[in-house]
Amino acid sequence: MESIAVSDFRANLMKVLKQIEHGASLDITSRGKIVAKLVPPDYTKTLAREKLDILRENAKVYDVLSPVEENWEADIK
Fold first, then answer.
1. What CA–CA distance (Å, rounded) separates 46 from 18?
2. What pLDDT, in 10s, does the model give residues 33-62?
3. Which of 3, 48, 58, 74 could be bridged to 27 by S-S, CB 3.0 to 4.6 A?
4. pTM (predicted TM-score)
5. Interior CA angle at 43 toward 8 and 39, to 5°?
């Protein structure tokens, strides 16, 4: 994620908003510290979809209703 100082953000507001509109994400900084994040409106949906795609690659789906014969670590005391 790129960053932009508050003063530069103010001076280039319309340019920055066009970048966000085209999918860019920016950290807004004040004196080198991040004070805000500017992301496209569908950012959370896109992020969630990316995480689900990663999960799909590794997840295994089983029958969750049938009893399991093996002991769980949480059951062992």
1. 18
2. 999 999 888 777 888 888 888 888 877 777
3. 3
4. 0.56
5. 10
